[in-house]
TrEMBL record:
The organism of origin for this protein: Zalerion maritima
Solcar repeats: 30-118, 128-223, 232-321
Protein name in UniProt: Mitochondrial thiamine pyrophosphate carrier 1
Membrane-protein topology: Multi-pass membrane protein
Cellular compartments annotated: Mitochondrion inner membrane
Xref: InterPro entries: MCP (IPR002067), MCP_dom_sf (IPR023395), MCP_transmembrane (IPR018108)
Length: 334
């Protein structure tokens, strides 16, 4: 066959059309999509691991100066929950929390990847500065809060409604679930606005928290990567996630306390009637001292270390698996 005939045959060759499964895998392995799904898996894994400490943190946060029911050490408080409510008490609100955290974490990781690629990178693969990662993470945090906040406020209500606060009145044998609580809040507490009560201090705390988390993780991850390697080991990724979570949470914790207080500001028997963020800060510091802004930080840090470690490791493992579905996976640090 002549060279001309050979070229004609080659020019007329058409590769087979990709199957539906191949098209799906190609879409799934897009970096932003992979980050979205991997973020959802990471959220579910991390929160389930530390659910008892998450609930205990909330019970500590919502106690004002006159409450003593959970003024205990972490171990004794966990035992109190176990004795009064059993295993269900330790996991109270976790179902709602997972329903919330899966889309929350998915949107957070996915939007971070989207903002990084489409807003902050001047060219594909550009290494962002720490400042840009901080801003990019803050934008991702705001996006995730706006999409999932109603589920967060319901999780808070579910977490405290079975706790032994004596002035909450007689508790019914069957506690309301997620949808019933959402409906009741909507009907009796101001409609749609009630589902976003406390979102201002939440955004004020989440934006810097997520930004610090992403920025610190990137810095620590690179510091723990041996010279000549592209990635650190799983143990070092766990360490990087634990450090980043602890740093970010400690710096922004007072906003988390304010968020919880505002989420239950209209619940009967709780004693909170804050008029604004400034009023809440003034009252808390006056009645409870500066320590009142850090109530629950011990179980929170005990929660954050394994939670963020599990979150980052499961995120990277899931993302790498999904990216591997593409014949030539695109590398991406986050």
């Amino acid at each position: 066959m002549s060279a001309r005939q050979n070229n004609t045959v080659q020019a007329g060759f058409r590769p087979p059309e990709p199957t539906k499964m191949e098209k799906f895998c190609d879409w799934l392995s897009e970096p932003v999509v992979a980050a979205f799904w991997a973020g959802g898996v990471a959220g579910a894994v991390s929160r389930t691991v530390v659910s008892p400490l998450e609930r205990l943190k909330i019970l500590f946060q919502i106690q004002n100066a006159g409450r003593e029911e959970y003024k205990l050490g972490v171990g004794k408080a966990l035992r109190k929950m176990w004795m009064e409510e059993g295993f269900a008490g330790l996991m109270r609100g976790n179902g709602t929390n997972c329903i919330r955290i899966v889309p929350y974490s998915a949107v957070q990781f996915g939007s971070y990847n989207f903002y990084k690629r489409n807003v902050f990178e001047e060219y594909p693969g550009q290494e962002l500065t720490s400042g840009k990662r901080l801003i990019c993470g803050g934008c991702a945090g705001i996006s995730s809060v706006v999409f999932t906040y109603p589920l967060d406020i319901v999780r808070t209500r579910l977490s405290i409604q079975t706790a032994s606060f004596t002035d909450l009145g007689n508790r019914p044998n069957k506690m309301p679930g997620m949808w019933e609580t959402l409906g009741k809040m909507y009907k009796t507490e101001g409609g749609f606005v009630a589902l976003y009560r406390g979102i201002v201090p939440t955004v004020a705390g989440v934006a810097p928290y997520v930004g610090l988390n992403f920025m610190t993780y990137d810095f620590v991850r690179k510091s723990l990567t041996p010279e000549g390697d592209k990635n650190p080991s799983s143990i070092r990724k766990l360490a990087a996630g634990a450090i980043s979570g602890a740093v970010a949470q400690t710096c922004t914790y007072p906003f988390d306390v304010l968020r919880r207080r505002f989420q239950i500001n209209t619940m009967s028997g709780m004693g909170y009637q804050y008029k604004s963020i400034g009023d809440a800060l003034r009252v808390i510091v006056k009645e409870e001292g500066v320590r009142g802004l850090y109530k629950g930080i011990v179980p929170n840090l005990l929660k954050v270390v394994p939670s963020m470690a599990a979150s980052w490791l499961s995120y990277e493992m899931t993302r790498d698996f999904i990216l591997g579905l593409r014949p030539n996976p695109e590398e991406d640090s986050l």
